Amino acid sequence: MSKRRTSVQSFGGVLGLAVLLGACAPAASEPVSGPAPSASSSAPASSTPSPPAPGAAPSSTTPSSTAPTSPAPPTDPPMAPGWNTYTTLDGELAFDYPENWAIRAADGAAPGGVSIEVVSDTGKSIANLRTNLVTGAECAQKSPYGVIESRPLPALTHAGSTPRFVFEIRSDPAQADPQKGFSGAYGISSAPEPVGPTACPIAHFFTWPPSGAAFGGIYDPFDTTPGNPPHADTPQVYAETDEFGKIRTMITSLRPAG
Asked: Sign of the C-alpha dihedral, residues 7, 8, 11, 14?
C-alpha cells in the first residue's frame, strides 16, 4: 500500500535548494555512448514494444473431466499503449518507460554492472539505473525532512528485504540561500523510513545481487529545462503532475527480467 505525506518537517518557513544525495561512487567507469538511441535503434540493451492493452475478454475453455489441464504460468499484464519495455544488457532487470522517452548509456558503470540514463522527449534527465554498486552512506548530519510518497516494491525483494519507492526532501534551516538548503529526490531505497523530526541525507540504494543498485532521479524546482511542468515549484504539486506520474510508473515497474 502506498503512502503519501505532504507535510514537511522544517525549522522555519523557507526551504532552500541543494542536492544532498548520499550516493557512493562506483568502482569504475565506462565511456559515454553516442546520442540517445530510440527504442528501435542500437540501445545498450534490448528495448521492445509492450503488447497492446487487452481489448476484449479472454475466451474460456472447459477442461476435460478425464484429462484435467495444468494451469497456465502467470504472465505480466500488458502495458498501456504508448509504453515500451527495456531490458538491461546483462539480462538481469527490466522496466517500462514512455515510448517518447529515450534510454542511453551513461558513464560511471561499475565493473560488470549497468549504467544507463532515461531522458524525456524534451531532453530532461529523468533517472539513472546503475547496478553492481558498493552501497553505503554516512550520516554525518541530520536535517528536517519530508516524505512525499512511499510504497513497497515486492518484486525487488531480496534476502528478506523489500525496498520501497520513495519521493523525499531535506531542508537546512541554517542556510539563507534557498538553493543551498534544500534537496529532493525520488528513487528506490532499502533504507528504513526516517522517524522523528530529522533524517540522514538522501541515499537511494537498494539491495540487489551481488551488492546493490540504484534507480532514481533528482527533483529540482529550479530546473529550467524546456517542457518542465508549469507551476510545479513545490514537491507536493510536482507529485501530482503527469511527468511525475510517468516517473512513478516507470521506476516502480523495475523487476527481474525473464
From this structure: negative
pLDDT at 246 over 60: yes
Whole-model pTM over 0.85: no
Given a contact cutoff of 8 angstroms between Cβ atoms, the answer to whether 132 and 108 are in contact is no
CA dihedral 229, 223, 102, 96 (to 10 degrees): -60
What pLDDT digit, counting tens, does each position of 174-189 carry?
888 877 788 999 999 9
Report how far Cα 180 is from the mean position of its chain's Cα atoms.
24
Run of H or E including 248: helix 242-252
pLDDT at 137: 67
| CA 79/CA 81 separation, integer angstroms | 6
Mean pLDDT in residue range 230-240: 90
**Residue 157 near residue 164 (C-beta atoms within 8 A):** no
Q: How far apart are CA 50 and CA 68, in angstroms?
A: 32
